[in-house]
């Protein structure tokens, strides 16, 4: 008995079901594609966040932490180094080269209304400077016509104390070498209530009397108070 061909209505129903299956398959493939894209984006974002956390300076944000590795921009320098003549400043001598019999370092960081300000290079160095750059390409004053026992080479905040004999330097002497005032209501050109920290502890009284000892970390906050930021000295200092 010969096979009967499907009726027209049956053929139409088969065509409709086939079209529906094709549309369902297309929707499934589209969902899979979106899941793959979302997964890739999520992986990228997680990786980017992880890298940001890994390389974000530990001292950023509020609270105690290590000071930022990167210095503030050059435009944030509090005040330029003063002009020196080679004559003694507060009894501190200068010479043609550095004296290393006594050789220690301290660190000074200054915040004005919450914004960090740089120390300039060349404090305690008589112009013209002998300029070079450090490993990161930042300016570095190797020396000048004369260099004092108390000086800065760069804008990192590191204070160099290098003398032929052991000397007890003070923060007031450093500011005199800088050519800037220091009081309980003024730091350089910045005016406001001063809060001073030494190695994380608040100190009161005349800030000029603060002693500069080996690896002291001194923080001066003018106006608003920034939680103390610790500092890790580079190897060899």
Automatic annotation (TrEMBL):
Top-level taxon in the UniProt lineage: Bacteria
Please provide the record's keywords in A-Z order: Membrane, Transmembrane, Transmembrane helix
Which parts pass through the membrane? 35-56
Query: Spans of biased composition, class Basic and acidic residues?
Result: 10-28
Region of interest called Disordered, as start-end residue ranges on this chain? 1-30
User: What protein does this entry describe?
Assistant: DUF4115 domain-containing protein
């Amino acid at each position: 008995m010969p096979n009967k061909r499907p009726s027209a209505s049956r053929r139409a129903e088969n065509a409709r079901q086939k079209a529906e299956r094709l549309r369902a398959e297309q929707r499934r493939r589209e969902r899979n594609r979106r899941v793959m894209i979302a997964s890739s984006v999520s992986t990228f974002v997680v990786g980017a966040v992880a890298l940001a956390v890994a390389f974000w300076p530990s001292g950023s944000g509020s609270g105690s932490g290590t000071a930022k590795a990167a210095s503030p921009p050059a435009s944030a320098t509090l005040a330029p180094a003063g002009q020196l003549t080679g004559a003694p400043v507060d009894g501190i001598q200068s010479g043609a080269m550095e004296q290393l019999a006594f050789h220690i370092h301290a660190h000074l960081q200054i915040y004005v209304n919450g914004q960090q300000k740089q120390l300039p290079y060349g404090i305690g160095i008589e112009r013209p400077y002998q300029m070079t750059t450090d490993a990161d390409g930042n300016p570095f004053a190797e020396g000048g016509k004369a260099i004092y026992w108390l000086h800065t080479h760069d804008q990192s905040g590191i204070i160099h104390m290098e003398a032929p004999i052991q000397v007890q330097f003070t923060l007031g002497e450093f500011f005199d070498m800088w050519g800037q005032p220091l009081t309980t209501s003024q730091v350089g050109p910045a005016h406001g209530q001063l809060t001073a920290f030494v190695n994380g502890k608040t100190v009161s009284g005349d800030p000029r009397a603060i002693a500069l000892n080996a690896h002291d970390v001194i923080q001066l906050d003018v106006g608003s108070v920034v939680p103390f930021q610790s500092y890790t000295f580079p190897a060899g200092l």
